[in-house]
Amino acid sequence: MKLTFAEHLRDFRIEKKMSLRELADLLGVSHTLIGLIETNKRRASSKFIRKFAKYSEKDLKLLEFIANPMPLSYKQSIYESEGAPDFLKENWIDETADGKDNIDEICLALFQEIDTRTTLEDRIYYRRLIKDLEKMVSRPVIQSWATFYSAVLTNLEIGPEVALRSFQDLYTTLTSDSYLQDAVHLRLQACFRMGEMSRDIKLYEQAIQYFLEAKKISDSINNDEGKANSYYLIGDTYRTMQDREQAIQYWQEGIAIEGPHQHLRAKLLAALGSLYKDLGRYAEAIDTLKGSARLWKLRAVNDSYNLAATHHEISSIFYLQGDYDTALDYVRRSLIIFTRLEAEAQHSGVSLDLAKSRLLKSAIFTNNNQLERATNNLVAIIQDYHRLTSINLNEANQMMREAHELLGLVYEKTSRWNDAEDIYKKIVQYPDANGTNSVGIRVRVFINLHQLYNKRDRKADAISMLLRADALVSESDLSDPIIAPTLIELNLLKGNIAFDQGNTQEGVKYHLEACELSRKTEASNLIEKAFSSIGNRIQQLYSDGSEVFAQALYNTVISWVREHNLEVLAIEVSKHQHLFN
After folding, report:
1. pLDDT tops 60 at residue 81
2. pLDDT in tens, 275-315
3. Class of domain 473-581
4. What is the separation of C-alpha 197 from the centre of its chain, rounded to a whole number of angstroms?
5. Considering only CA atoms, which of 244, 1, 199 is closest in space to residue 102?
6. What residues are paired with 97 via a beta bridge?
7. What are phi and psi of 101, to 5 degrees?
């Protein structure tokens, strides 16, 4: 049994030695339409399926099901009968290839949309289908697949803790019962699910062990795609654990595998490129993400959603590098695709992605001094808040915080000081829905107000904002990677204030703390940003006649740089050596 209608169509043409045009003439349709259906760029209509079933002498209901896993007519037949339609039952017996049952392929085809179909009607459909499969006592592998998908539904309806136990019980049965020893593909899928459930409940080491077992099974059956997927999931788990070196290693090994489908290679490249971006390795990130984008465009992959997401990621890197023209080019590409997908309602949550790309475009306009366009975009995003919260509250709040911060910067640039102050204060109205970043959000607000008051020469108020920010930070926050960039900036600002007040020791201390925090993030862009700020401070102190302060800061930081072998990243500091010769 083929998994897709397109495969049936291609196989029929090959079997009959027909060209696209010959089959098109036979069915009375355009050859372009058949080409689009064969490359999965257009769904086959019911009328087309009926015509093809007639001329190919294939089972109409089977073709309808493959072309659309859950057409209304099929659902109705489930509800109106005691069991599954006859054509399904016949396929369990009749579908063979080289003497082996295609049970795995059939089950995967039946349930291929189970994770994304969430309505009550869909759940009823799946539960009834599972119940029918469980009745097939003479086919233990089919019964085991029913148990597998029952656990999948349990995860969707109740949660991963209960579902994990169901998967573990199933896996024990699969590995201990002799009549299930050949159900290797089912064992592989169970390992993937157990790993994902373990990761969902933060049992990361256990998750990795399940993914490694999946890799072992994939090796035993020469399944390169399963092996590459194992590498992807292991790397993704290590990234969640903040072990970036291991994540990179596994993703690179997954990419090196020749066999897997290009969609999986694109996914691995996208993940690796995103991690390179987080580490500040921008050139590698752009090259890797461009490789991913090329694969998303392939006819065999044709994944518009992920192509748009990759364009967005590339744009964000050019934005961080200050290349606003190229950033704008890529974000416009993502906006075109996301807008089309939203209109076609082809992907859940695409409205959030569209809003994120609009927010990135607004950031580009803000930093490129296209302030009127930035204002219009940001106001529109903020006004869309309530619609976005209905999709994902946490993501919506995150976007609101970023939008308010950008709008505050726009108001500063246009000397609307009171408006800027008001908009910064509103940021706290959009908390982290998970409650994990409340300190970082409030510290960010105080930093924005500190910089605003500094520009208005309200020195006492500016210092007060930093003191209030500092009072929020506890020892445990220093090891939180989420708020690390904010705390690095806070320490640099505290160091600058200390120098302004003539306190050399405190000034050096805070700058060193910023260096240490940036080093622990392993993100070269944050380290370079800290060094750039320190270099600017050295030059300013020297120019203001505070040569002793400047040299004290330079000597201490350079000594720390050499201790940690960071000379390559510290050019913005070392270039000031000539001041003290």
Report:
1. no
2. 999 988 999 999 999 999 999 988 777 888 999 999 999 99
3. mainly alpha
4. 18
5. 1
6. 100
7. -65, 145
